[in-house]
Structure formats: C-alpha cells, structure tokens
Amino acid sequence: MKKTSLEVYKPAVDNMGRILKILQEEYPDAIYTSLEHKNPFQLLVATILSAQSTDKLVNKVTPGLFEKYKEPRDFIDVSIEELEEDIRSTGFYRNKAKSIKACARDIVEKFNSEVPDNIDELTKLPGVGRKTANVVLANEFGVQAIIVDTHVQRITQRLGLTVNSDATKIEFDMMKIIPKDKWTEFSHQLIALGRTICDAKKPKCPACRLLPYCRFGQEKT
Predict the structure, then answer these.
(1) Is the pLDDT confidence value at 1 over 80?
(2) Which CATH class is domain 40-140?
(3) Is 131 a catalytic residue?
(4) Could you say which of 117, 131, 166, 202 is catalytic?
(5) What's the number of CA atoms in the CB half-sphere (13 Å) around residue 211?
C-alpha cells in the first residue's frame, strides 16, 4: 500500500469513538500505573527512576528504597553517593539521584513536605517534567491527564493521531481529540497495548483490533 503523507490519519481520528471502545474492551483494568507506591511522594520518586528503565525493574528497587527512606527529608539527609548506589540498577543513577535529592529538598522547603497537586507546581520541581507530573496527578490526585510515555508516543504516532514527536505537543494533540473524562484511561490502555501488542520493534499488527484504523498497520499490510 502506498504510504500516507505525514498528516493526521482520518480513519483514526474519525473513528476515535470506536478506538476508545476497543481499548476499553481489550484493557478494562488498565487504569492505574504499574509502579508500586503507597503515597504521592513514593510515586514521584518511582516515576523519576522509571526514566530510561522499566516499571518492572523499578519495582524491584523501590520496596527496599522506601523502607530505608520513609519521607522526603530522608532523601535530603543521605549522601549522594549512597543514594546513587541504592538506585544504580535503574540506570542513569547519578542524574536520578541528583534529581531526587533536589526534588525532595524543594518539597520539604517549599511545600511543607507535601507533594503539590497541580501541574504548574509539580513541573517546577527538579527532574519533574509533564509526563512525571501527569503520572502523579492521574494516579494519586484523580486528575484526568494524558500521560505520554514511550508507548503512548509511539502508538499515537503509528495510529496517525498526531504528526508530532515531541511529548508535550502529543499531549496537547490528544487533549483536543480525546474526551477529558477518558484522558487517564486512554493513556493507561495505550501503555497496555504497547506492552502486549504494539511493540517498538516487532508489533503484532494482525492481532491488533485497531488495525483497520491504524496508519502504520495499513501501510504494513
């Protein structure tokens, strides 16, 4: 099939309701992050650790980490070298340790040890971009949010719902075409799709119920 020019793919946009219905049928339970946590600060730390890593790997590290460091101030008091060793297996541990310590300091000093519950204040914290902030807002504060991780970025592009590669631009593109009460659910369902079928290197297009509405899939067949 001739490749479609780089523009929003009408079959995907025009059938958004059908796509949402299929995602709900396929992944009805994909409504929460798979990062294990007990409070907003733990989720914030876990999400920072998940950058360039996997939730599965992070979940192996965080039980011991949160047993050792029970509150934000504990992360301030520990030496950077010790924290680096504690999180080494998640990768990029030097930058992550620096971000976590700086983030914890701001939370203690500027927010009375409480994680902010809005996007503006969250994204002012060191190491916290819109994706991390939206994970916390959606999963801990019940705020509807489009969470653009690597899966959501890849699948929205493959479907043809966006022509952008920048995560923030994709987030705002999706906010325009996804009903607000579906933002969080849609994000988690695309993440589930990415982990099960729409693999980065070997997507299982014939097994995907979104194939009729997917630019990438149609170009492959």
Answers:
(1) no
(2) mainly alpha
(3) yes
(4) 131
(5) 11
